[in-house]
Each structure stands twice: as C-alpha cells, then as structure tokens.
# Entry
Amino acid sequence: MQQEIRRRFEESIETKRRALEHLSDRIAEAVNIITAAYDAGGGVFLFGNGGSAADAQHVAGELVGRFLVDRRALKAQALTTDTSILTCLANDFDFEMIFARQLEACAAAGDVAIGLTTSGNSPNVVAGLKRAREMGMKTIAFTGEGGGKCAGLADVLIDVPTRQTPRVQETHMLVYHIICELVERAMVD
# Structure
C-alpha cells in the first residue's frame, strides 16, 4: 500500500512539472483576459459536470468572496448550482443546452466563459463555449491533454499534459488557485 501511495504522489508531482512547462504562458494569458474583463466591468461564468461542476463553484466562491486578501467582490457565477434552472433547461430543451442557455440569459460580450471538462468533449461544455464565442465572450477551457473538441473553441486552452483524470483534476486545482491569486493581486494593486 505504501508503494501505491508513493506512486500516486510521484505521478501527481510529475504531471505538475510537465504542466508548468506546458501551461505557464497560457496561465498568464488567462489571468490577463480575466483581469481585463473585470477592469471593463464584466464578469466570469464557469461551468462543468460532476467534479468540474464542483470546481466551478469553488472558483466562483474564491472570486466573489476572497482568495488571500480582502478586496472588492468580483463578479463570478457558476452555472452549475441552480437545480431549478438546470432541470428546466434539461427537460424543456436538452441537457446539452444547460450552460449555453444560461450564458444567453446572464452574460454579455466582454465577459469570460470558463468551461471545465477533463475529456474536452462534454457536449454541454462544448455548446457553452461555442455560444460564448458567438456572444463575443472570451473563452478559457480547462481540459486534459489535447483539449478535445474544446481546443478549437478556447481563446486560452489549459490542457494538462496527461490523460489520467485524477492527475488532470489535481493540476486543474493548482492552476485555479494560481489564477485566483494573480487576478486578486491585479485587482488590489
């Protein structure tokens, strides 16, 4: 059992090392896009399924509340939280449209859409990013290696260089926290 535990730690560390080399410039670009949206009075809309839905809520909470320092609230919304809206849209339209339709209702050109999908192929995340682009929003996709269908829809692709879902999700969390910290710093400077 100890060998298995050690192996998982080593896999996670190695994935993060590769991600550092692969994603540093993209992370900085994502921070710049989000900061520019806030400077212009816009906001951030996050969405994903399962664990990615929980991550969307986590990041929105860090932006609306605070990450490390007290500062003004930043406009952020997870499109994964309102069960009445989600079930209405899934029932009356299609599950694939649950994020795209919410963006139509709540977002505007200049806002940022952040789609989270380990595979890069979740149909509702793909549809959300597509609608965001049609609306003139900036798009950021958090995926695993290669980005799947989301790769062509993202202004910034944060594709963790592995296909192992747990390692992708662990690295996404690190990147979310880095982005939150750097955006927050830009908002208080």
In short: The radius of gyration is 16 Å.
